[in-house]
Write a structure and sequence with these properties.
The complex is a heterodimer of chains A (465) and B (443).
Chain A: H1 4-14, E1 21-37, E2 40-58, E3 61-67, H2 72-83, E4 100-101, H3 118-135, E5 139-157, E6 161-179, E7 184-193, H4 205-220, E8 223-224, E9 227-234, H5 241-248, H6 253-257, E10 278-281, E11 302-307, E12 310-311, H7 318-324, E13 332-333, E14 342-343, E15 347-349, H8 357-362, E16 366-378, E17 384-396, E18 399-405, E19 408-412, H9 413-418, E20 420-423, E21 428-429, E22 435-438, E23 441-444, E24 446-449, E25 452-460
Parallel strand pairs in A: 4-6, 8-18, 9-16, 15-24
Antiparallel strand pairs in A: 1-2, 1-5, 2-3, 5-6, 6-7, 9-25, 10-11, 10-15, 11-12, 13-14, 16-17, 17-18, 17-19, 19-25, 20-25, 21-24, 22-23
Chain B: H1 3-19, E1 24-40, E2 43-61, E3 64-70, H2 75-89, H3 116-120, H4 123-140, E4 144-163, E5 168-186, E6 189-192, E7 195-199, H5 208-220, E8 231-237, H6 239-253, H7 255-259, E9 280-283, E10 304-309, E11 312-313, H8 320-325, E12 343-346, H9 353-358, E13 362-370, E14 380-391, E15 394-407, H10 408-413, E16 415-418, E17 428-429, E18 433-441
Parallel strand pairs in B: 8-13, 12-17
Antiparallel strand pairs in B: 1-2, 1-4, 2-3, 4-5, 5-6, 5-7, 8-18, 9-10, 9-12, 10-11, 13-14, 14-15, 15-18, 16-18
Classes of the chains: A alpha+beta (465), B alpha+beta (443).
Chain lengths: 465, 443
């Protein structure tokens, strides 16, 4: 659809005023979704995104322009607009505009022959609805959304690299609301990956909907969360949101090159208890955050962020890697052709430690067990974070005693990582439904974690004795 | 693409939908020219300028509906996408409430949504503005050693809407913004703060000096912050945080959430929910308001709707679909597929924020929060926060790493003071206000 000759001309035009490098990102994306509400297919939608983004980089400065008009004149205008950044900056050399098509890895499971057979989507949603309603008479509402997305990208750089990638992504999200007349509780479960809807033959809508209904019933019977400092057990899998917020964002190279992160200039230093090792990996098969190539055309990689408590490296995109004198780690990502790339996480996780879940639980006197998180946010300069617990329980004298609802956890990244006192031997990746927002751009990511114990954290509930 | 061309494009999309088998259809076309300048230190870090367009098409056939969103305006692209969308609608369940609105119209008064000066302004002046903001934050306090960038943003756009009942109209609008993120360093601790302002007209923007001063104050005032004790005390929400609480109040009065049981206010119309100080208005006709428009996403005229009057919940807010479903009339709040706020705000009181602090013997001032509501069914509020501990009517010391929590119902009922500092910097806005008692969790 986008040939080498056209992309060469765009790169050539974009570097007419000079620049260190330039790239062109072409995107064609089709998104199909069906939503179930009130026990029936409530609406359907179809989305098409088609456009080209041109970027010119001069030192620390970047010019960017996109066009959703694929006519020659409009595309050349975008290249012209991007080149304006070089007007006020000292011009570097222009690169080659001879493009060589390079092959990419294949981490995704999608057959080109897969058709988007609409009846199959509808059946999956109806099975989820029926399962959740059968689960308990207190289930009063089921909302489910099935999305099938295929993004095709053509990326060309002024160094002559030209790659194509076709990225599938399916997601089934199920929200269940339970009510006993007096109170309401809700549960959410989502799954999917870079594959086809055949994935839901393995992770069935029955399994996912039962779990969402189970969480809704747990939350319906839950007490208001306690308030104050206590121990915390972070659940395996979904607990990985903690790593994403408390550490991951602070290790993105834009914040570190600019010196705005608390982790800036600290490679080789101790930033966590020596039990803590954290990876970010763009190479895991089928995972939401995996990329054959990133949005700058660099292959996805396995990155060691923290090893035995010591900071090992940042996640790099091309601009920041160049300015910091290192290589890109394949972390340059963007929401669409309308945005310039940023360094972002792919799939962030902690490998196994050696404690068993029972050891961790029995050592906990008074705490909260956050089995999963519903979301989180971090402020990267000082490292303060907050998490909303999706499914949580009180732990008293080594036993799980009662479910708690609407708990918020607040803390500080390095402080919490220093207070990691046990790492479980049950590491796994979470169900795949997480989306990360940064600077107004949303990209799919994965998280994972073993059961981990943190010796002290602030729980922000309403129950204060 | 000008206004007339956008209206034509919307009409064409409706015709294509009809020819592909839709019984009725509605098309919204928007075309926006956007500019974003980011300055950092003494250089332009980012210069982004593009014109983008979008079509949002809703098709209806036999009480079934489907939606298309596309940026591909080629004749072939539109025809192919519309055909697929109409086919998708066949799998949707029959829904008696789905369809075009009964009444549409265009406002006659001028809402002053477009500032021609935005496009006429010299581009070098726009770049200089971002550079100047970056200088101002560094001049404001010697502890400002870095920044995440200072920004100037603008959009100049046209929005057009056409439907198969013959409605066709459009309007032009502009939006300009300035924002900055100073990083201050003191005693080895780095603190970043963000502050920004936005308006339809350049002349309505808060000055660069004022934006810089507020942003820097938010970064440096919190040095030496500690965790407060866990306690139940009065909590003052400063203006921007107060607006984020109003965001959640909007979610609870949105007909879309009420209809699916995802609102703690379900069944509450006519009841006294808030204190007598709680009057909340949704005004789609505020002159030059960022949430104003002559008609909503379905062509229904916008209006001024009192949502809470002296604490009493008067109505939920609706688009056509959720109004029909809940037996009400549209309040002109359609976003073209959902329900959204116009200018949704808490009516200001007469106190200044300073006077409110002075009238608080013991409490907490919340200047910033992190976190967000994940579900509105149970009506629980809980956020990570930072701000000041108040003792004897004075800001005693800065505090952070704590949470503020309570039930929204108790919060609205507990509003016992509202300040006079309302500014319409976003479509949801609020003056600072105080809640009589909430749970603060710290040590």
């Amino acid at each position: 659809m986008f040939d080498e000759a056209l992309l060469s001309r765009l790169i050539h035009r974009s570097l007419q005023r000079g620049g260190d490098f330039a790239d062109v990102f072409c995107e064609r994306r089709h998104t199909l979704s069906y939503r179930l509400q009130d026990g029936r297919i409530h609406d359907a939608s179809y989305g098409v995104a088609l456009g080209v983004g041109v970027r010119v980089v001069v030192g620390e400065s970047a010019g960017y322009a996109y066009s959703d008009d694929l006519g020659d004149e409009a595309l050349m205008q975008a290249a012209e607009a991007a080149s304006l950044i070089a007007r006020s900056a000292p011009a570097g050399h222009a690169g080659t505009s001879d493009l060589r098509r390079e092959p990419v890895a294949s981490l995704y499971h999608r057959e080109l022959s897969d058709s988007m057979d609409p009846e199959r989507y509808v059946a999956l949603l109806e099975r989820a609805d029926a399962t959740a309603r059968r689960y308990d008479a207190k289930v009063v509402a089921v909302n489910a959304l099935l999305t099938d997305d295929v993004q095709e990208v053509w990326i060309a750089t002024s160094e002559g690299r030209f790659v194509f990638d076709r990225r599938p992504l399916v997601t089934l999200g199920i929200q269940v609301v339970a009510s006993d007349k007096k109170e309401r509780g809700s549960g959410y479960v989502g799954d999917g990956g870079r594959t086809t809807i055949a994935y839901f033959d393995r992770a069935t809508p029955e399994e996912l909907a039962s779990d969402a209904a189970r969480i809704a019933i747990v939350n319906l019977g839950a007490s208001p969360a306690p308030a104050g400092e206590m121990e915390m057990i972070v659940g395996a899998g979904g607990g990985g949101v903690l790593l994403h917020e408390a550490v991951g964002h602070g290790l993105e190279s834009d914040f570190n090159r600019r010196g705005t992160s608390l982790y800036s200039g600290r490679i080789g230093e101790r930033v966590a208890n020596d039990l803590v090792t954290i990876y970010d990996d763009g190479n895991l098969e089928e995972e939401r955050g995996s990329l054959n190539v990133d949005d700058e055309g660099v292959p996805g990689q396995h990155k060691v962020l923290v090893e035995n408590g010591v900071l090992r490296g940042y996640m790099q995109d091309r601009i920041n890697a160049r300015l910091m004198g290192v290589e890109s780690t394949g972390s340059g990502r963007r929401q669409s052709f309308r945005f310039s790339p940023q360094p972002r996480m792919c799939n962030t996780y902690m490998p196994d430690g050696d404690a068993s879940f029972d050891e961790i639980l029995s050592s906990t006197q008074r705490g909260i067990y956050a089995k999963s998180f519903a979301g989180g946010q971090v402020e990267i300069s000082k490292g303060d974070f907050v998490f909303m617990v999706g499914e949580g329980y009180l732990v008293e004298n080594g036993k799980i005693t009662a479910p708690v609802r609407n708990a918020t956890i607040v803390g500080n990244g390095p402080d919490a990582m220093m207070k990691v006192v046990a790492v479980g031997n049950d590491s796994r990746l979470a169900r795949r439904h997480y989306t990360c927002g940064k600077g107004g751009q949303y990209v799919p990511v994965g998280v994972g974690m073993p059961t981990v114990k943190i010796s002290s954290i602030t729980v922000g509930g309403t129950q204060h004795e | 693409m000008n206004e007339a061309a956008a209206i034509d494009a919307a009409r064409v999309a409706v015709d294509v939908a009809r020819s592909c088998g839709a019984h009725s259809a509605e098309a919204a076309v928007s075309v926006a020219r956007r500019l974003h300048v980011e300055a950092r230190e003494d250089a332009v870090a980012r210069l982004e300028g593009s014109t983008g367009k979008g079509l949002l098409l809703r098709v209806f056939r036999d009480g079934r509906r489907a939606t298309l969103s596309t940026s591909d305006f080629s004749a072939e692209g539109i025809r192919d996408a519309v055909r697929r969308t109409v086919a998708q609608a066949q799998l949707v369940a029959f829904d008696e409430y789905a369809g075009l609105p009964d009444e549409v119209s265009i406002a006659t008064e001028n809402l002053s949504l477009c500032d021609d000066a935005v496009s006429q302004r010299d581009s070098l002046e726009k770049i200089e503005e971002a550079l100047r903001l970056e200088r101002l934050i560094r001049e404001a306090d010697s502890r400002v050693v870095n920044s995440s960038g200072s920004h100037y943003t603008e959009s100049a756009a046209v929005t057009a809407l056409a439907n198969s009942n013959g409605f066709a109209a459009g309007y032009a609008w502009t939006r300009v913004g300035r924002s900055t993120g100073p990083v201050a360093l003191d005693g080895g601790v780095k603190r970043i703060a963000h502050y920004g302002t936005a308006a339809r007209h350049l002349r309505d923007l808060e000055t660069l000096e004022s934006v810089a001063t507020t942003a820097v104050r938010r970064a440096v005032d919190l040095f030496g912050a500690r965790k407060p004790p866990t306690m139940r005390v009065p909590v003052i929400f400063e203006r921007d945080v107060a607006a984020s609480v109003l965001d959640d109040v909007f979610a609870a009065v949105s007909g879309a959430n009420v209809a699916v049981g995802n609102s703690w206010l379900s069944g509450g119309v006519g009841n006294a929910i808030g204190s007598p100080l709680v009057t909340v208005i949704d005004d789609g006709r505020l002159i030059a308001g960022l949430g104003s428009a002559p008609f909503d996403g379905e062509g229904v005229p916008t209006r001024r709707t009192p949502v809470f009057e002296r604490g009493v919940l008067r109505t939920f807010l609706y688009d056509t679909y959720y109004a029909r479903k809940l037996g009400a009339a549209s309040t002109g709040n359609s976003t073209g597929g959902g329900v959204g706020p116009s200018n949704f705000y808490l009516e200001p009181g007469s106190l200044s924020l300073q006077e409110m602090i002075e009238a608080t013997p013991l409490g907490v001032l919340v200047m910033d929060t992190i976190g967000f509501a994940t579900e509105h069914a149970s009506g629980t509020y809980s956020r990570g926060a930072r701000g000041f501990f108040i003792e004897g009517g004075e800001l005693a010391y800065p505090i952070d790493e704590f949470t503020v929590a309570g039930q929204y119902a108790d919060m609205l009922a507990g509003v016992d003071a509202v300040a006079n500092d309302l500014r319409f910097d976003a479509s949801v806005a609020s003056p600072s206000f105080r809640v009589a008692e909430m749970t603060v969790s710290g040590n």
